[in-house]
Design goal:
4-stranded mixed beta sheet; 16% strand; single chain; AcylCoA_DH/ox_N; Butyryl-CoA Dehydrogenase, subunit A, domain 3; alpha+beta; 379 residues; globular; 4-stranded antiparallel beta sheet; Butyryl-Coa Dehydrogenase, subunit A, domain 1; Butyryl-CoA Dehydrogenase, subunit A, domain 2; 11 helices
């Protein structure tokens, strides 16, 4: 168990902080939103991040990666949360590359992971079919034919799905929606015949897509892992995503509190600084304590992935539930303490509030993860 970064990880975090502050401040997200950027993230920035080795950080050395681990990636996630940076790091490296690494054949790994590592290939996980997280509720079918599979169905809220080169599609090859058994993973070219992608912009100015699959023919070689047995693999992929997202939310909440404390120290009301009021000090102290507890949970969860611990799934749910609560608390309090200007578009506090609302729903809200944590712990 590690609750602090080691020297190398601290150096990486310092480098990521300097990089994001210089190249991707929050105004960069505002610019992407206002200009309705077609990709939804800065492709040049992603190229720079790839040159720094961040796309290869968790990929094994055998496939041109650094094998630096999720604690290292978590350091970058936390700093990206401070500046609300949009990039394919989550969809491509954490979700897509994990699917290939965990379930892919040796040929698939040799062919695709080096492309991810150098930033040439972007991926997206096509899982959800409703507006609420329900990993077992997959209805999209993959019917086995003589030469492969035929996919039919619809996916919603596919993060970066409008721009990804390939999709990791969760499909049902047997059973019924709601059952964990009978799921399979397919790696599909996003421009395949029969695929129709409709871009949607979320309230946090990030991108997702609704994707229709109509008689999409894929070869048997597109299958990741075994047919019908994708559930344990999908669980691992989602847990990596939940923990990464918790780290990013930690950075966002930390930044939000810092900006609020700074504002309270500058703003005067009735001739005195707002920060001099004892009631506001108490509220800030509560947020600080909650953040420090959350930091410990996130660090332990990142360690659980690297150490391949048996309690990784429980730690993922604990981290996601905890950060859902803390990010909500901090953004609510920050908006209120900024008064009327807290809800204006000119102030960046609103960007954190919106990001919190979206991140809280991705891969499970607090209720989902409290229930899952209790079940995993035998309650």
């Amino acid at each position: 168990m590690s609750l602090v970064f080691n020297e190398e990880q601290r150096q990486l975090q310092d480098a990521a902080k300097a990089f994001f502050n210089e190249n991707a401040p929050i105004d960069a997200l505002r610019k992407l939103r206002d200009e309705k950027d077609a990709t939804g993230y800065d492709t040049q920035l992603w190229a720079q991040m790839s040159e720094l080795g961040w796309a290869m950080i968790t990929i094994p050395e055998a496939y041109d990666g650094l094998d630096f681990g999720y604690l290292g990636l978590g350091a970058i996630a936390i700093e990206s949360g401070h500046t609300l940076t949009a990039s394919p790091l989550f969809g491509t490296v954490v979700l897509g590359a994990s699917a290939i690494e965990i379930a892919g054949s040796e040929q698939q790994k040799q062919e695709l992971l080096p492309q991810v590592a150098c930033g040439e290939l972007t991926l997206a996980l096509a899982l959800e079919e409703t507006n609420h997280h329900n990993p077992a509720g997959v209805s999209l079918t993959a019917a086995k034919g003589a030469d492969g599979y035929v996919l039919n169905g619809r996916k919603k809220l596919v993060l970066d799905g409008h721009s990804a080169d390939k999709l990791v599609v969760v499909a049902r090859t047997s059973g019924n929606a709601g059952e964990a058994g009978g799921l399979s993973l397919f790696l599909v070219d996003a421009d395949s015949a029969g695929i129709s992608r409709q871009r949607t912009t979320l309230i946090d100015s990030r991108n997702a897509a609704n994707i229709d699959f109509e008689n999409v023919v894929v070869s048997a070689a597109a299958l990741l892992g075994e047919a019908d047995n994708a559930w344990p693999i999908l669980d691992q992929i989602l847990d990596r995503g939940r923990i990464y997202l918790a780290a990013e939310m930690l950075g966002g909440a930390d930044e939000c509190l810092s900006r609020t404390v700074e504002y309270l120290g500058d703003r005067e009301q009735f001739g005195v600084k707002l920060g001099s009021f004892q009631a506001l000090k108490h509220r800030c102290a509560e947020m600080y304590c909650e953040l420090e507890l959350a930091r410990s949970v996130v660090m332990d969860a990142l360690s659980a992935i690297d150490d391949q611990r048996a309690d990784s799934a429980a730690m993922a749910s604990l981290a996601k539930a905890r950060l859902n609560d803390v990010f909500k608390l901090v953004t609510n309090e920050a908006t209120q303490m900024h008064g009327g200007i807290g809800v204006t578009d000119e102030l960046v506090i609103g960007f954190f509030l919106k990001r919190a609302r979206v991140a809280m729903q991705i891969f499970g809200d607090a209720g989902f993860h409290r229930d899952r944590y209790a079940t995993l712990c035998g309650y």
